[in-house]
UniProtKB/TrEMBL annotation:
Homodimer; disulfide-linked. Interacts with PXYLP1; the interaction increases the 2-phosphoxylose phosphatase activity of PXYLP1 during completion of linkage region formation in a B3GAT3-mediated manner. This is Galactosylgalactosylxylosylprotein 3-beta-glucuronosyltransferase. GO terms for biological process: carbohydrate metabolic process; chondroitin sulfate proteoglycan biosynthetic process; dermatan sulfate proteoglycan biosynthetic process; glycosaminoglycan biosynthetic process; heparan sulfate proteoglycan biosynthetic process; positive regulation of intracellular protein transport. Pathway: Protein modification; protein glycosylation. Its cofactor is Mn(2+). Residues 312-322 have a biased composition (Basic and acidic residues). One of its GO terms (molecular function) is galactosylgalactosylxylosylprotein 3-beta-glucuronosyltransferase activity. The record marks 227, 318 as: Interaction with galactose moiety of substrate glycoprotein. The active site is at residue 281. Mn(2+) binds at residue 196. Signal peptide: none annotated. It is a single-pass type II membrane protein. It comes from Neovison vison (American mink).
Length: 335
């Protein structure tokens, strides 16, 4: 038994001596472990550097938000609105004026279908806070709707829109507000906004930088959910419409805007009161632009920002009955 333990101890001793000798020999050999150590150290250094940069970014104050351009630097939007006397006239104009008041750098051209200015419209303009020009021109009797005729038989607002174009080109005839037309070189865009439509504020910023003629869809018009240009690769290639799609420009009056310099450069361009039904817009645009050069707006004409709404005609049976009894509403109260 003692012999076996001695043999085991001797074997253990010899193996240990051999291992020690191998280790001593290896100490004298070149070691290739230095490059990995250096790479690991570089990674740690890069991480420390990134952490320091992130900490510095957190301590740095946030950048100031981008400031919108000053109103004086914006092109002016000239909004042309024909209007005529009726029970809902003031309600329509109040609603429209409050939308327009949200838009910077805007000039409202309000044109009455009348021989001269009316107190209702004059007072509304004075109270609106808007930059405005008040014009008035009476529609000739031959062009006026006859009793019982539907509204689509004869175009409305032709004389009034043309009167606004005349003022933009040469001035004169203003009965209130700004009397002088835009000076030469004025940057601007002209939009024909009827008083009964509904307008998103975004629409006006879409049109502001129009270079020629810009276009977009109009909701609730032509018997459709919307009418408007069809756009492919950023260009107008057709129109989504149901009624007379072969018109030169099958667009609604609310669906386009024209740059002021272009209008001034084409003095003969105006609306034609004798144009066939549905061709009133084309009678102007045909003098100004080729359909292929139209500028699509509103996300390539995929967003509706204006609606062809109409206020229901009020029923006045009770008012008429009271008037026959001499107890009608006080006419001195403006409605």
């Amino acid at each position: 038994m003692k012999l076996k333990l001695k043999n085991v101890f001797l074997a253990y001793f010899l193996v240990s001596i051999a291992g020690l000798l191998y280790a001593l020999v290896q100490l004298g050999q070149p070691c290739d472990c230095l490059p990995p150590l250096r790479a690991a150290a570089e990674q740690l250094r890069q991480k420390d550097l990134r952490i320091s940069q992130l900490q510095a970014d957190l301590r740095r104050p946030p950048p100031a938000p981008a400031q919108p351009p000053e109103p004086e630097a914006l092109p002016t939007i000239y909004v042309v609105t024909p209007t005529y006397a009726r029970l809902v006239q003031k309600a329509e104009l109040v609603r429209l004026s409050q939308t327009l008041s949200l838009v910077p750098r805007l000039h409202w051209l309000l044109v009455e279908d009348a021989e001269g200015p009316t107190p209702l419209v004059s007072g509304l303009l004075a109270a609106s806070g808007l930059l405005f020009t008040h014009l008035a021109v009476l529609t000739p009797k031959a062009q006026r709707l006859r009793e019982g005729e539907p509204g689509w038989v004869r175009p409305r607002g032709v004389e009034q829109r043309n009167r606004a174009l005349d003022w933009l080109r040469s001035g004169g005839g203003a009965v209130g507000g700004e009397k002088d037309p835009p000076p030469a070189g004025t940057r601007g865009v002209v939009y024909f906004a009827d008083d009964d439509n509904t307008y998103s504020r975004e629409l006006f910023e879409e049109m502001r930088w129009t270079r020629g003629v810009s276009v977009w869809p109009v909701g609730l018009v032509g018997g459709l959910r919307f009418e408007g240009p069809r756009v492919q690769d950023g260009r107008v290639v057709g129109f989504h419409t149901a009624w007379e799609p072969n018109r030169p420009f099958p667009v609604d009056m609310a669906g386009f805007a024209v740059s002021l310099p272009l209008l001034l450069a084409k003095p003969s361009a105006q609306f034609d009161a004798t144009a066939p039904r549905g061709h009133l817009e084309s009678s102007l645009l045909s003098h100004l632009v080729d359909p292929k050069d139209l500028e699509p707006r509103a996300a390539n004409c995929t967003r509706v920002l204006v609606w062809h709404t109409r206020t229901e005609k009020p029923k006045m049976k009770q008012e008429e009955q009271l008037q026959r009894q001499g107890r009608g509403s006080d006419p001195a109260v403006e409605v």
